[in-house]
UniProtKB/TrEMBL annotation:
This is Alpha-ketoglutarate-dependent sulfonate dioxygenase. Keywords: Dioxygenase, Iron, Metal-binding, Oxidoreductase. Pfam families: TauD. It comes from the Eukaryota.
Length: 378
């Protein structure tokens, strides 16, 4: 199916004020200079300095990586104590569910101090609750090296093919927009909405699992992140339709994201890949089944004719996107770390804050197993 918005996984335009122009050359440099100089100018003049300058995004055109190799993923969520004594100690942790099936807010525990037993519980708790917002964390104050060391427990770090990264740390995916410029208004010049549901980099052979996103600087209000529970979305389908989806695979493509990046003067760190994944995947720790197609990266259902594939994918995207009764909305606060399980959720940023305010986040994206399915159970 033609993607609903092909350009990027996260609606982020390279911010040339932070981009290292000297790293660019030839027509690329000219494009960057002509296309983005006005933004750079505004960014420099119009806004307070970044709170976390070490995390400002850079795009190094010379950085190139070989195709990703398969690796053996260890699912730590399988080893967790299901009463979560290390992650959520009684009388210490405050745990509030945002909705019945998806989303929990936790206070009173510091993620950075968790033992390995606590990290196993974190992987499992997040798989069960789909997305968890941990408040008052010190994550953004750790060195980038420490944050990456922490994240590496959960899987091999993914290096994004196109997104901005802090200089020297391609494993960090940076979300940064709106520092004193008009990029929020500009975003809506040719769009009616910023909602762009996706599961991160689902085109990889081993897409991410337990994923961390932490706030560095936030607008006064707005810029919340939406999440949808792809397990509950599966459970809501009739047994007959569930059964029809089992056994089907869909293609997921990185090609459009890479092309869109190049066309706006961005980078391509790796050659884009296309992979096939089951439409219904099983979570390795919980055994839950989830719908695993998304409008950003899924292209077609293998073995079906185009109209058939388009109709089923459109139904599934609408089902996920309009399912307000299995979605959660996370409001960022200073110190919030949001952890989600990318295998059983989709999410969307919202670009709805007041023009000119900075929104700055960092993502740590450990890859997980190759998606697999288990038989329909009725
Ligand atoms: O900016 C956000 O709220 C989410 C961005 C996003 O899609 C991501 O970091 O994976
Ligand atoms: Fe994302």
């Amino acid at each position: 199916m033609a993607p609903s918005a092909v350009e990027v996984e996260t609606p982020v335009v390279p911010d040339i004020s932070a981009l290292k122009l000297q790293a660019l050359s030839g027509p690329y440099k000219e494009l960057a200079a002509t296309k983005f100089d006005a933004d750079a100018e505004a960014g420099l003049k119009g806004h307070k300095a970044a709170k976390h300058p070490a995390y400002l995004p850079t795009w190094d055109r010379n950085e190139k990586y070989a195709p990703l190799e398969p690796f053996e993923h260890t699912e730590h969520g399988k080893d967790a104590d299901l009463s979560f004594p290390n992650l959520l100690p009684q009388g210490v942790a405050s745990v509030v569910d945002l909705t019945p099936t998806i989303g929990t807010e936790v206070r009173g525990v510091q993620l950075s101090t968790l033992s390995n037993a606590g990290k196993n519980e974190l992987a499992r708790f997040v798989a069960q609750r789909k997305v968890v917002a941990f408040r008052d964390q010190d994550f953004a104050e750790l060195s980038i090296e420490k944050a990456l060391e922490y994240g590496s427990y959960f899987g091999r770090h993914h290096i994004h093919p196109t997104s901005g990264a802090p200089a020297g740390f391609p494993e960090i995916h940076v979300v940064h927009r709106g520092a004193g410029d008009d990029s929020v208004d500009r975003y809506f010049a040719n769009r009616t909405s910023s909602v762009a549901w996706h599961s991160d980099v689902s085109y990889e052979q081993q897409p991410p699992g337990t994923t961390f996103l932490y706030i560095l600087d936030k607008p006064e209000t707005g810029g919340d992140t939406l999440f949808v529970d792809a397990v509950e979305a599966y459970n809501r389908l009739s047994p007959a339709f569930q059964q029809r989806l089992h056994g089907l695979k869909a293609t997921h493509s990185a090609v459009e994201q890479a092309n869109a990046s190049l066309s706006r003067g961005g980078i391509k760190r790796r050659e884009p890949v296309i992979n096939e994944h089951p439409i219904i995947r099983t979570h390795p720790a919980t055994g839950e089944k989830a719908i695993y197609v998304n409008p950003q990266f899924t292209r077609d259902i293998v073995g079906l004719k185009k109209e058939e594939s388009d109709a089923i994918l459109k139904f599934l995207y609408d089902h996920l996107g309009f399912g307000g009764d299995f979605q959660a909305r996370v409001k960022w606060q200073e110190g919030t770390v949001v952890v989600w399980d990318n295998r059983v959720t989709q999410h969307s940023a919202l670009v709805d804050w007041k023009n000119g305010q900075r929104r700055h986040l960092a993502r740590i994206t450990p890859q997980a197993e190759r998606p697999f399915e288990t038989p329909f159970e009725g």
